[in-house]
Amino acid sequence: MNNSPESPRYGGGADGSEHAAEPGRDRPDSVRPRPPLRRPASGRLLAGVAAGIAQHFSIDVTIVRVGFAVLTIVGFTGLAYFAAIPLYLGGIPLYLACWLLIPEEGSDQSIVGRLLAARQHRPG
């Protein structure tokens, strides 16, 4: 085995063999990086927030939509509290915030990002 500084050893094999593992090969093949959080242009009902969140976390879009609906309905009752914070109309402001902050597919900036960038480049 070569223990010189030029050839770092990343660890032995699971069977006790003394081979150098390749960097990045210790991760299972089934683990893939998440896609970037974007609002897709297709498959959306309103602004694409639920579809984008569902794609990012690899879950069914129906689950996300039901979550927003439950937050909205519970928020309308005015009885729901989360850590002593009232959830008044929780689903609607959350959806609007996501719409403003999550960029659309094919864009690198969100709506708020574009507004702030335009304001910074404005003279005066």
Q: Could you please describe the fold and organization of this structure?
A:
- This protein is mainly alpha-helical and 124 residues long.
- The protein has a domain at 49-121.
- Helices cover 39% and strands 3% of the residues.
- It has 4 helices and 2 strands, in the order H-H-E-E-H-H.
- The protein has helices spanning 49-57, 61-77, 91-101, 111-121; strands at 81-82, 85-86.
- Strands 1-2 form a two-stranded antiparallel ribbon.
- Strand 1 and strand 2 form a beta hairpin.
- Helix 1 (49-57) packs across helix 2 and helix 2 (61-77) packs across helix 3 (91-101).
- The longest helix has 17 residues, at 61-77.
- The protein is globular, with a radius of gyration of 23 Å.
Count of beta strands: 2
Helix residue percentage: 25-40%
Spatial order of strands in the largest sheet: 1-2
Low-confidence stretches: 4-21
What order do the helices and strands follow? HHEEHH
Q: Nearest-angstrom radius of gyration?
A: 23 Å
Alpha plus pi helix count: 4
Class based on secondary structure composition and strand pairing: mainly alpha
The averaged pLDDT comes out at 77
User: Based on CA inertia axes, which overall geometry fits?
Assistant: globular
Percent in strands: under 5%
Distance between the termini: 67 Å
* Biggest sheet details: 2 strands, antiparallel
List the keywords.
124 residues, mainly alpha, two-stranded antiparallel ribbon, 4 helices, 2 strands, 3% strand, globular
